[in-house]
Amino acid sequence: MAHIKYRYFAKIARAAGDIATAEAFEATADQEVQHAFGHLDLLYPKSQMTPAKALEIAIEGETHEYTEMYPAFRHLAVQEGNQAAVAEFDEQIAESREHAAQFKAVLEKAAKRFAALAKVEERHANHYKQALERAQAFADHETVAA
After folding, report:
1. Using CB atoms within 10 A of its CB, is residue 9 exposed (0-12), middle (13-18) or buried (19+)?
2. What are the residues whose beta carbons fall under 8 Å from the beta carbon of 90, sequence distance 6 or more?
């Protein structure tokens, strides 16, 4: 989140005409992204990740946001009487629910594609197996004929 905060600060500095400060925030934001990638490499080693696994993790995270995290934040905002925060959390709950549904749809579509590809690959394998059997039969026939 730090990189987003620094991008926001850069936007403010740029709007105020302070380009040097904006550039300093932007450079730091870029470094924060690289730090985050390093952390993610430790949490989710590339050797253990697949696109499907990434989608499953994303679905889990978005589901956590709309079922637990944002509702808890919303509850506190209600207790504090902060209607602007309540409205923001309501939007975040809806958005996280939508993100989870989008990731789930991509995962389901990929599963269907892989299932279809498996059928195609099976047909190819059977075709090659039959071709190999014919080639072996031909070779056997040529050996007997010689």
Report:
1. middle
2. 74
Provide the residue ranges of all domains of the chain, joining segments of one domain with +.
1-43, 44-145
* Per-residue CA distances from 105 to 54, 56, 67, 116 (Å): 14, 11, 19, 17
Predicted confidence (pLDDT) per residue in 87-106, tens digit:
999 999 999 999 999 999 99
Residue pair 96/66 in contact by the 8 Å Cβ criterion: yes
pTM summary value = 0.67
Q: Strands (DSSP E) along 20-61, which ranges?
A: none
Structural contact between residues 51 and 103, judged by C-beta atoms closer than 8 angstroms: no
